[in-house]
Write a structure and sequence with these properties.
The chain folds into 2 domains: 128 residues, 3-Layer(aba) Sandwich (Rossmann fold); 64 residues. 53% of the residues lie in helices and 13% in strands. The chain has a 5-stranded parallel beta sheet with strand order 5-4-1-6-7, sandwiched between helices. Strands 2-3 form a two-stranded antiparallel sheet. Helix 3 packs antiparallel against helix 4.
Length: 202
């Protein structure tokens, strides 16, 4: 087995993203039933994640459906992106960056319109790896096998030549089904140890 590329997820892996409860806060503030915001905005969330809806259209749709004025919309979006970006996993990013140039490194992320600019501004991911593949730019999402195959194509590798790290079990299982050496992230220590073990065995 030869490993040529190492690919990481972002949210829950390179970014620490615990729930902030912001949706519930807004439901209380607007006098809405629990769960109603995600229900009302479901198509916008989905469209934004695969790029069928622009960032501007998402923002306009949120304002219209929830009846937000300009200042409320700005606050709503600030809360959205605060949870989305979370905080940087410094230790894991340093390890990820250290893998170059021995290996090609990439990010494969289920993302949202506007994520590339915000994540680059906040964390500089584009400077730490060779390639970032975002779902909102490709119209595909994990665990769709086509998304993993696209990553292999962009990296010019076969699935068995990739190590992939993600924090969602169904996503990891789908990657394994394609033939990728996928690892379920549980902690920095565990993930780094498992990646190093695979590299040592290659």
């Amino acid at each position: 087995m030869m490993i040529k590329a190492i690919v990481f997820d972002i949210g829950g892996v390179l970014e620490i993203t615990p729930p902030t409860g912001w949706i519930g806060h807004w439901e209380q503030q607007l006098g809405l039933a629990a769960g109603s915001i995600n229900q009302q905005l479901h198509d916008l969330w989905l469209g934004g994640s695969i790029g069928t809806v622009s960032e501007q259209a998402v923002e306009a749709g949120i304002a219209e459906r929830l009846g937000l004025d300009e200042h409320q919309l700005a606050a709503f979006l600030a809360d959205l992106w605060a949870e989305y970006l979370g905080t940087l996993n410094h230790e894991l990013l340093a390890f990820f960056a250290s893998l170059r140039p021995r290996y090609t490194t990439a990010i494969l992320s289920n993302s949202f319109v506007g994520a590339r600019q915000r994540e680059q501004a906040a964390y500089g991911f584009e400077d730490c790896c060779d390639l970032i593949i975002y779902s909102h730019e490709e119209g595909l999402k994990k665990p769709d096998p086509a998304f993993y195959r696209l990553a292999c194509e962009r990296l010019n590798i076969q699935p068995h030549e990739m190590i992939f790290l993600d924090d969602i079990e169904v996503v990891v299982e789908a990657a394994r089904a394609v033939g990728i050496n996928a690892i379920l992230y549980r902690s920095n220590q565990q993930a780094i140890a498992e990646i190093q073990a695979l590299l040592a065995a290659a």
